[in-house]
């Protein structure tokens, strides 16, 4: 009988509230199949850990610690922003990966990330084949940007969406209380440089039995100052106040980020202050309304305390499915979420070939944005609503969430040479 | 038997996650004493509602709706930033108040706010006496700034503190994941123009079994650029990353807000972008580290979804106690939280004379800030820790908190003249 092959797991790019739930799914499932898969090694700081042969032996972690990954945000093994270059440009990097994998008897590559890592995953599968050391490469989807194709949604997005919807609802209640004599405008800046998925989630704050005036600025819609100001003014005249959700990626007619039209610091640097203050000050200058603004930044992708239960379940299920696909002998694939119905919401796990996934970006359909460009449609709501369903509170100690920090014990190196990144 | 006198309740100044819990305590308790107190009328948009005779009849609200105030953030009747002037400057306003109270047979004045409203409350008690229509005026403490004297803490503060502690922990986990190849600095701007209570709460993010490098900039400590940069740099060299919690009120040696030293917009307006981007860019310029920054703004005081259970219980208890004090015949007083012990945390309700409360600001003791000025001491931790204990999740529907919106039915006006604010 051949020696059991080990698995390699790495987290890639910006982390989320639930990427560790996928890690939990991968590791717990692999541990259940010890007859098929050896150890799970994780890359310290993502793929960088593979290149530098800095591997973490997850078998040293207790069952309890691994289980706690399910409710711990961030990347437990470290992540990185390190994009492997194309095969032609830097074949050495891919060869190094395979060399490390070979040294540690790694036959399964689980890569947990967005579009770029799907591409890397595919290349690892291909080059390992040509190098005579075939590795089964499975991509585990993750991105708050929700821009991977084929899968109905991407783990991480739904929790960010829930955080934004809850926050905009709460802040809108606040400004509604104050609008008689004080603040009338609340502006919330959200992530999404290329797509308005997260901004759209702000629209969920207003719903059945809770009508709130929310104006959304999408990166998909060219910013029109006059129309925007008219929309905000109408909302204030009707409701007394208005909440604005603005995507960091909103652009003006000349293709520049709206954020850049704002402040310059003493050195002439632009974009010191984000797009929220630019929008807030624009309203103040034109309409005279007092404002407050917030920038959620990392909070929106790290807020495990208010994660969507649906998101947690899908993140775990996709990690689990990745291992099951590997055991079935699949290669160069990504498990996906397949939506079976909106209401009641039902979903199952499917899979997609990586060549269909890599380098394809899922845009938000124009039909998800209202005709005037400032809101979401019923269709968009039907898509988003089920994703934020359910709460999945972490355990607390001393008033704070009890997030796990792993031991992250290093695997002894087997290669003598150092690899320069 | 004399006709039962009604009560007036109003919310004042910036709202919080739990001010409605105090309203709930006031109304539910008054309803239990129908033999002593008539109806509870609320001021629409705070004291402005009293001046304009725009009263809300809370007896029209269902038991369920009033109960739901306990888990609803913001000011359910509307609040305002409207400070009554001194008696000499504007006696007419006070006389108008008494006139409205008399017209509606109001004998109890419950004012839910911070230092300014404690002062107003005291004046109402005094002037009503001299006008021959004595009103029992009871102040219900509320302020995220935690700056009222005598009471151990102020409702609203603990939930803001919990929000900040949770958020800083989550964002610190995030930046820790990314620091190998990307972001090393996370800056979070928090409220507190005069006192660093909320900033101090950021220090709770790091605790037993969860050591995180957190540098705090307090308004109490004059900003020293070199020392600050050295502190951040040391944290990054040791941990690979650093989280900075900065109070909006931090000032430089010349007495100016640090925020003002940053951006200017096209019109030369300063402070477009808050203090967080100023601090983040300063670190980048001096040390070269990549950063992210967030400004929580209203989110920190509206975040009922992560409210402290201790805070909710105290807010309710203080509202309840206010009514009980009124029934006992007390006047010009404020119920307080009295701490009996830190660990286990035990507290009870006390009361303070308003003349001891009005115009006194509770500062953060210097002994709560570490010697180097960038952290909290064990003493500070012992004070803060119990306040954020416990969770008190609101009910959810469709993935979002189900916050109540009252009917807010107006009481028929009895006075013919209009009052100009």
Describe the structure.
The structure is a homodimer of 421-residue chains. Chain A is an alpha/beta fold and 421 residues long. The first copy, chain A, is 34% helix and 16% strand. Chain A has 13 helices and 13 strands. Chain A has helices at 19-32, 47-51, 63-68, 91-103, 115-130, 157-178, 197-202, 225-239, 275-287, 298-302, 309-327, 354-357, 378-384; strands at residues 6-11, 40-43, 55-57, 106-113, 136-141, 185-190, 214-217, 242-247, 291-295, 333-341, 346-353, 396-397, 400-401. A five-stranded mixed beta sheet of chain A has the order 3-2-1-4-5, sandwiched between helices. In chain A, strands 7-8-6-9 form a four-stranded parallel beta sheet, with helices on both faces. In chain A, strand 1 (6-11), helix 1 and strand 2 form a beta-alpha-beta unit. In chain A, helix 4 packs across helix 5. Chain A is elongated, with a radius of gyration of 23 Å. The two termini of chain A are 37 Å apart. The mean pLDDT of chain A is 94. Chains A and B meet through helix 6, helix 9, strand 9, helix 10 and strand 13 of A and helix 6, helix 9, strand 9, helix 10 and strand 13 of B.
| Strand adjacency order, main sheet of chain A | 3-2-1-4-5
Most extensive chain-chain interface: A-B, 83 and 82 residues
Catalogue the unreliable spans of chain A: none
The shape of chain A is: elongated
Structural class by secondary-structure content of chain A: alpha/beta
């Amino acid at each position: 009988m051949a020696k059991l092959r080990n698995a390699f797991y790495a987290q890639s790019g910006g982390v989320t509230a639930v990427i560790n739930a996928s890690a939990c799914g991968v590791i717990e499932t692999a541990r259940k199949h010890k007859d098929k898969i050896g150890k799970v090694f994780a890359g310290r700081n993502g793929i960088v850990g593979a290149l530098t042969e800095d591997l973490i032996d997850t078998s040293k972690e207790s069952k309890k610690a691994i289980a706690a990954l399910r409710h711990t945000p961030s990347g437990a093994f470290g992540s990185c922003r390190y994009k492997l270059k194309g095969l032609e440009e830097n074949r050495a990097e891919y060869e190094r990966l395979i060399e490390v994998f070979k040294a540690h008897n790694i036959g399964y590559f689980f890569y947990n990330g967005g579009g770029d890592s799907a591409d890397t995953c595919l290349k690892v599968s291909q080059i390992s084949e040509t190098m005579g050391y075939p590795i089964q490469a499975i991509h585990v989807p993750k991105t708050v940007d929700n821009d991977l194709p084929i899968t109905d949604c991407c783990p991480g997005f739904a929790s960010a969406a829930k955080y934004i919807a809850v926050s905009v609802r709460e802040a809108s209640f606040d400004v509604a209380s104050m609008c008689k004599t004080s603040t009338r405008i609340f502006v919330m800046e959200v992530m999404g440089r290329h797509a308005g998925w997260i901004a759209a989630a702000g629209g969920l704050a207003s719903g059945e039995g809770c009508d709130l005036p929310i104006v959304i600025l999408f990166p998909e819609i060219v910013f029109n100052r006059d129309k925007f100001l008219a929309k905000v003014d109408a909302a204030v005249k009707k409701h007394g106040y208005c909440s604005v959700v603005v995507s960091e990626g909103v652009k003006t007619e000349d293709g520049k980020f709206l954020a850049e039209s704002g402040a310059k610091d003493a050195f002439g640097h632009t974009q010191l202050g984000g797009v929220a203050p630019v929008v807030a000050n624009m309203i103040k200058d034109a309409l005279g309304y007092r404002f407050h603004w917030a920038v959620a930044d990392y909070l929106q992708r790290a807020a495990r305390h208010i994660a969507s239960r649906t998101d947690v379940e899908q993140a775990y299920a996709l990690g689990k499915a990745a291992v099951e696909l590997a055991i079935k002998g699949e290669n160069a694939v990504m498990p996906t979420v397949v939506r079976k119905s909106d209401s009641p919401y039902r979903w199952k796990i499917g899979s997609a070939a990586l060549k269909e996934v890599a380098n394809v970006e899922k845009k938000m359909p124009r039909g998800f944005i209202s005709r005037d460009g400032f809101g979401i449609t019923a269709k968009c709501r039907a898509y988003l609503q089920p994703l934020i369903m359910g709460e999945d509170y972490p355990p607390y100690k001393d008033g704070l969430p009890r997030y796990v920090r792993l031991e992250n014990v290093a695997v002894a190196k087997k290669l003598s040479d150092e690899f320069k990144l």
